[in-house]
């Protein structure tokens, strides 16, 4: 039992090795080498190399099997259509939505920063205007006016303001303020200034001995008051280009950060949070001549930005903007749902039609030609399904026709075997004459007929006929001729001796009797050309009757002679008088009788082979063996027509006087 298990395991390993290709084998070897080298006290270069090879081979194996998996997944048309729809519809829509989201994020952030910086600049400009006013106040009323000014600025600067005026004296607000403005180079300055690590808005106006300075904290309270419904705004307390310098040139620690206001709540699911940065130039209290960029952080939402932008109606249609956007969004969703339902319906129609065609094709492959598939709709797929049903019906009909043709071919083969039995099986040995005949049918059965009969041991009767038409009907008439001829000859031989009866009756009488039999027992359109001859070795004469057949050819001394015709065809008329002739054959004479299948075949130019070419072949081969003469004749005709099958039955009977 253990031996059997080991053999099974070994066989499985062999099958696995045959299944694995070189990427899998390389990956396995590299992985084994990496694991082994990890535990061996060797240098890490080989371990690293084996790890790299294992990684690359593993990636190659993954890509190979991933490609195979994708092919298997995309084999079905449904999966291909899903992938096509994803690439055509889902991916572009997703990219458009992603682009819209990114654009909305960028625009929302930039607009939010723009709103904050614009409001901050506006308030800074307002503070500068107030600083100019302080220099214009009368000295006697300056303190009172400065107090009133500070109270008026309290709404715009929630953290309060500090005011300072130097003009032949000093005025401060509040009174306990110890602020001493730094020295500026320009007569008017405004903006942000960092004092003790905290941001402030300042405005300074001065010329000569007169100077006015206003300072307001720019903390979270002020920044969030710039656009109350916009979101959280903060100014980071370190410059982008380095730490805040101290008066002594050393780096000071930053003060603790203030607690920022939270972002506004979302208005809907798509109201995402946006955080954007901007840069504001600020000078330091210690060095007001060199500004540094400080990052401004704004956290908001698209709904808050839109609410801030459209908080004031500038026209009568502004109130309907949100409603219009909502309607457009609903219409978009409705259209998308309609498109989705339509796409799914079309996909199911296509996949169902293809699936039905696939299943129908499989059943047809298995031999079920009665299968039909369901036809739905009136489109190209429905027409394809109808065409499939028509094709299977035609195949079924053609199969029945093929079976019928096979039956007919088998019957024709039987008829051919029967007809071959009608031809003489052996050539009678007659003194002074050698004889040979050959028939090549155009179809499986032939309408040509040849025969030779030994009459009394020394005489020989020869017959050759060409029935009108080809195929079964001609073969049946040929069998009738053969039966009538043999029956008549046998009757003559039984009633008093072959020599006496045949010579007394004559070849013409025999052909006339055959004509009456065929006319009485066949249809009017059935007839045949017929040649009948009797060879008498005692007199070396050939007595014959030609009933409408092609004139036989006699080759004597290199010259050809045509033997004349004695009457019309047999079977066409009830009573016909036939004549007979005789000719003495000399030693070496070649006698040939043939059907029109050897003379009337045409080449590709429509030119017939003709009797002249046939006679020429007989003359040139007159001294050859009879079989060689027949081979030469048939080869010449086949070469002339260049057809795989003869167009007509070809039969020839030749005899030589020896």
What is this entry, summarized?
With 658 residues, the protein is of the alpha+beta class. Helices cover 48% and strands 19% of the residues. Residues 244-253 and 497-504 have low confidence and may be disordered.
Biggest sheet overview: 8 strands, mixed
Overall shape: rod-shaped
Helix content range of the residues, please? Answer: 40-55%
Rounded mean pLDDT score = 83
Distance between the termini: 89 Å
The count of DSSP E runs of length 2 or more, i.e. the number of strands, is: 18
Approximately how much beta-strand content do the residues carry?
15-25%
Q: What would CATH call the homologous superfamily of the largest domain? A: PPM-type phosphatase domain
What is the CATH architecture descriptor of the largest domain?
4-Layer Sandwich
Q: Given the helix and strand composition, which structural class is it?
A: alpha+beta
Count of runs of 4 or more consecutive helical residues:
13
* Radius of gyration of CA atoms, rounded to a whole number: 60 Å
Low-pLDDT regions:
244-253, 497-504
The largest beta-sheet arranges its strands as 2-1-5-4-3-7-8-6
Q: What would CATH call the class of the largest domain?
A: Alpha Beta
User: Which fold name is given in CATH as the topology of the largest domain?
Assistant: Phosphatase 2c, domain 1
Integer tally of domains: 4
């Amino acid at each position: 039992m253990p031996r059997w298990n080991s053999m099974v395991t070994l066989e499985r390993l062999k099958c696995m090795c045959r299944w694995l290709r070189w990427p899998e084998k390389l990956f396995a070897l590299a992985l084994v080498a990496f694991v082994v080298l990890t535990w061996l006290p060797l240098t890490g270069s080989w371990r690293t190399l084996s790890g790299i090879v294992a990684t690359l081979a593993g990636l190659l194996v993954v890509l190979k099997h991933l490609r195979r998996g994708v092919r298997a997944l995309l084999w079905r048309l449904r999966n291909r259509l899903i992938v096509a729809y994803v690439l055509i519809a889902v991916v572009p829509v997703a990219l458009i939505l992603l682009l819209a989201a990114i654009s909305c994020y960028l625009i929302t952030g930039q607009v939010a920063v723009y709103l904050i910086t614009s409001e901050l600049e506006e308030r800074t400009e307002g503070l500068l205007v107030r600083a100019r006013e302080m220099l214009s106040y009368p000295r006697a009323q300056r303190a009172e006016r400065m107090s009133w000014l500070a109270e008026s600025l309290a709404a715009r600067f929630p953290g309060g303001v500090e005011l300072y005026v130097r003009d032949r004296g000093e005025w401060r607000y509040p009174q306990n303020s110890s602020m001493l403005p730094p020295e500026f180079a320009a007569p008017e300055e405004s903006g942000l200034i960092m004092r003790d690590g905290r941001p402030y808005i300042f405005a300074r106006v001065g010329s000569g001995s007169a100077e006015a300075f206003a300072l307001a904290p720019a903390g979270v309270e002020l920044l969030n008051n710039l656009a109350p419904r916009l979101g959280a705004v903060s100014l980071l307390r370190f410059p982008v280009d380095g730490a805040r310098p101290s008066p002594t040139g050393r780096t000071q620690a930053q003060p603790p950060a203030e607690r920022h206001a939270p972002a506004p709540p979302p208005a809907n699911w798509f109201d995402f949070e946006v955080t954007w940065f901007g840069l504001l130039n600020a000078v330091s209290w210690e060095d007001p001549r060199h500004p540094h960029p400080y990052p401004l952080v704004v956290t908001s939402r698209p709904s808050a930005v839109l609410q801030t932008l459209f908080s004031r109606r500038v026209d009568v249609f502004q109130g309907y903007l949100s409603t219009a956007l909502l309607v457009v969004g609903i219409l978009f969703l409705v259209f998308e749902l309609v498109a989705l339902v339509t796409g799914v319906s079309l996909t199911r129609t296509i996949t169902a039609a293809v699936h039905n065609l696939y299943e129908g094709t499989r059943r047809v492959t298995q031999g079920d030609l009665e299968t039909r598939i369901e036809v739905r709709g009136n489109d190209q797929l429905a027409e394809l399904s109808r065409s499939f049903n028509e094709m299977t019906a035609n195949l079924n009909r053609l199969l029945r026709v093929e079976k019928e043709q096979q039956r007919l071919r088998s019957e024709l083969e039987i008829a051919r075997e029967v007809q071959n039995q009608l031809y003489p099986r052996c050539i009678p040995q007659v003194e002074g004459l050698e004889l040979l005949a050959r028939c090549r049918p155009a179809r499986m059965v032939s309408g040509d007929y040849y025969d030779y009969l030994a009459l009394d041991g020394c005489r020989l009767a020869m017959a050759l006929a060409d029935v009108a038409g080809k195929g079964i009907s001609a073969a049946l008439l040929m069998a009738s001729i053969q039966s009538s001829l043999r029956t008549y000859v046998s009757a003559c031989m039984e009633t008093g001796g072959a020599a006496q009866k045949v010579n007394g009756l004559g070849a013409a009488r025999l052909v006339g009797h055959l004509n009456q039999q065929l006319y009485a027992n066949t249809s009017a359109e059935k007839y045949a050309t017929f040649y009948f001859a009797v060879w008498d070795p005692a007199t070396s004469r050939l007595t014959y009757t030609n009933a409408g057949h092609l004139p036989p050819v006699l080759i004597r001394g290199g010259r050809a002679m045509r033997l004349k015709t004695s009457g019309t065809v047999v079977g066409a008329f009830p009573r016909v008088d036939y004549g007979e002739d005789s000719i003495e054959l000399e030693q070496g004479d070649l006698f040939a009788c043939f059907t029109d299948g050897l003379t009337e075949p045409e080449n590709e130019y429509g030119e017939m082979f003709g009797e002249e070419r046939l006679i020429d072949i007989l003359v040139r081969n007159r001294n050859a063996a009879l079989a060689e003469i027949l081979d030469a004749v048939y080869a010449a005709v086949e070469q002339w027509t260049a057809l795989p099958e003869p167009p007509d039955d070809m039969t020839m009977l030749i005899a030589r006087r020896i």
